[in-house]
Amino acid sequence: MGVAAGPIRVVVAEPGPDGPGRGAQAVARALRDAGMEVIYAGLHRSPEHVVATAIQEDADAIGLTVPSGAHSTLFTAVVSLLRERDAEDIKVFGGGVIPPADVAALKADGVAEIFPPGAAVTDVVEWVRANVRQPA
Prior knowledge:
By secondary structure, the protein is of the alpha/beta class. Helices cover 42% and strands 23% of the residues. It is built from five helices and five strands, in the order βαβαβαβαβα. It has helices spanning 22-33, 47-56, 71-84, 100-109, 121-131; strands spanning 9-15, 37-45, 61-66, 91-96, 113-115. Helix 1 (22-33) packs across helix 5. The two termini are 14 Å apart.
């Protein structure tokens, strides 16, 4: 597969049954302001919807905000669906109210990066630039 042209494409979503969406919206805005193409999948989306959107949109990464405490289930479901659909090249990152003790397990499951509560959106932008494909 060749190097993709154009800006880095990121699907941003807040899966799960709750949450105000402010974190996902702030990350989406920061990534867009940094010159990335952002597909905002919205709130309360199922892992299936998020993965289908990422594949359809030819995304390079998926950014999830999970404030509900269901982080283990939701992150793992997204990573598993990407594997099932042979789309493991789409990197998954995110944050929310995730206990530090759970971060290692999420990374072992295939989540590329977890940002703690209060992380600056500039840290997210810098991580995406350094760890997701470089624009052609």
